What we know:
2 strands
Amino acid sequence: MIYSYVNIDYIFISSLKRDSVQTIVLSYDIACQWSIKLNDRNRIYQPDVASSLLSTLNIIFLVPKFHLNAHIQRCQLDYSFNLIPGVGRTDGEAPERAWAESNAMAASTREMGPGSRRDTLDDHFGDRNWAKITQMGI
Length: 138
């Protein structure tokens, strides 16, 4: 079962390669499970993937508010945004909102080749980010 989280491990550990942060607040639907033995799993990966920073970072694992209600009471206490100083009134659900909006693109990108599909998705998310940035003042 140690390889159950190999995809998210790779994404997260790879993201540490170019950062020099000391504290990370991580919001993930199953952070309560995924965080268990993360350091142990990091040690089994090849040196080009594994991160030496992982054991020195202060990582605060949280579960997004919408998902937290489905967890047991212990998780609701240990992984709640409401109980952590410094995160404000964050709900942790922002990535989910982007996915909900992008689901409609599946029909139009389904038959595209990998390059065209990637370009189309990049254009969509680039436009979405541009719209968010230009509306921040409003």
